[in-house]
């Protein structure tokens, strides 16, 4: 087999084994609840559910650069990793409110869990240390924001970020 033919075969194999960038999903929260810090105590709160656009961005993209920083803290591995438990790959996702423009603060270091034919079955994402979301591109959605200074470093009169748990559903809106 000549080098040109071998290169064609390898290119075809790469197309079959490396999934393209993930689809864009519309994720609609069906409920959002949590706690706000008010006058030195946690007070139960509910939040207005949001509609969010979630899409993968290339790690080389301007928005993807922030993911590289986050991944480097977590030992970035590029490409598909296969184990006895399944296949996965690292990816950068951006999540923003419908109608808004994404910024570097909206980027998340994610792990895509791959199913049959290396199709994405679910995605688990970590933003800054305290924000995360997990979703299926056409399925369930769960997000959390959990910063609370549990070590007691915040005094009663200091502001604390809200604690929020949101659930919902996602639908693929673009391949």
Would you give an account of this structure?
The chain is globular. A hairpin with a 4-residue loop joins strand 8 and strand 9 (140-145). With 175 residues, the protein is mainly beta. The protein has helices at residues 3-17, 64-73, and strands at residues 24-38, 41-46, 51-57, 80-83, 86-97, 107-114, 120-126, 131-135, 140-145, 163-174. It has an eight-stranded antiparallel barrel with strand order 1-3-5-6-7-8-9-10. The longest helix has 15 residues, at 3-17. Mean pLDDT is 79; it is low at 1-20. It has two helices and ten strands. The protein is 14% helix and 47% strand. The protein has one domain.
List the helices and strands and how they pair.
Blueprint lengths: L2 H15 L6 E15 L2 E6 L4 E7 L6 H10 L6 E4 L2 E12 L9 E8 L5 E7 L4 E5 L4 E6 L17 E12 L1
Antiparallel strand pairs: 1-2, 1-3, 1-10, 3-5, 4-5, 5-6, 6-7, 7-8, 8-9, 9-10
